């Protein structure tokens, strides 16, 4: 066994979250030493990989699940505003890194693409119109267009309108300020920049097997090199668990009180990927619809134009599925191994409360190719099966947490879990995830590094990296316009 070492920071997982936190910390305090451990032999191989997520710059422009209709018929837009603000913060940080030359060629990871919502049926059309009116009242959503005119929609989304019944009532909204993001390419760019800094070391094919806090407050980690079998031990003052679906088992190993009672519900996904270049060229938008009853938010159907490694692609889905794995390249025993005495009640309670979701996932798994085609044809009436092929998407683990009233509830967002002493933090959950990574990591800094964050050095640096830091963009239209124009110009995006 190799000698023990003691980096200042240990990041578990080489995805977008660890990469974001690593760059933030290194910019704030350059003398920090950082070690990154990734169990795969590649960077961003799980949830951050371009084929394993929607690639949508989640800004709530088109995602209808962020704007539910309340019982009185009004539209709840609070979550949409928070997500839109968070995405602007991410863009500010990325623009800073590009402007400083830390990250090259923004076009390799971010592209302008219209974000659209498309619905059919009188009730859904009425909902979409109210949604557009509610959102456009906020500066973050200025410029959102709405139309029920078939001729306008044919110009916006010709492929979606081809062969559609003229009598069918349809409507769409459009935001030209939308984006498509290759989070895999962005993660690799961030980690490449980190590796150029003194005191940063990346270890691929390395799995953290042990995690224990010692009497002096430091964390003792046991790591195995999966390629050579060699084992290593190290100590650190701070650990971030950003391992996607692998975060929950590691949080359980940490044994911190704050991690008790959390469980995970794995949801897998699949895409239909278009293989006909003529069809791909007819579409240029991200078009989101309404989720089926009982569907998890990550399964909201969407027809996506993507740019992956410089090539235009067209995807439809995702089709949800169930797997007991917590990672795409995980173990079938991940779910049963995650069940502990402290979380069995919340998991059982959440399971009982979400029987429609379980049924939905089972039905999705059992779908025939003809049934998948039928779902696609709701978006593309003239779709032909020979133009599409099924590909496996990423694996997500939805958070189950303790709840006094119900025993346990299933959450569909992201959750930062941190120890009271700020020495360890883990990120659980999924969407909107990567798009709001910068805001999530700022929240983590507030929890785990409050004293340093209060110093002029850190505070001033954060305002340099994120000009809107400490201010609410939704309440400040002048600031929003300034930072949006600046970040869009640097990232070469449409304003």
TrEMBL record:
Keywords: FAD, Flavoprotein, Oxidoreductase, Tricarboxylic acid cycle
Lineage of the organism: Bacteria, Pseudomonadati, Bacteroidota, Chitinophagia, Chitinophagales
One Pfam family cited in the UniProt record for this chain: Mqo
Family label: Belongs to the MQO family.
Protein's UniProt keywords contain Oxidoreductase: yes
Protein name: Probable malate:quinone oxidoreductase
GO terms of biological process kind: tricarboxylic acid cycle
Associated pathway: Carbohydrate metabolism; tricarboxylic acid cycle; oxaloacetate from (S)-malate (quinone route): step 1/1
Cofactor: FAD
Catalysis: reaction(s): (S)-malate + a quinone = a quinol + oxaloacetate
Record organism: Chitinophaga agri
GO molecular function: (S)-2-hydroxyglutarate dehydrogenase activity; L-malate dehydrogenase (quinone) activity
InterPro entries given in the database record: FAD/NAD-bd_sf, MQO
Recorded superkingdom: Bacteria
Enzyme Commission number: 1.1.5.4
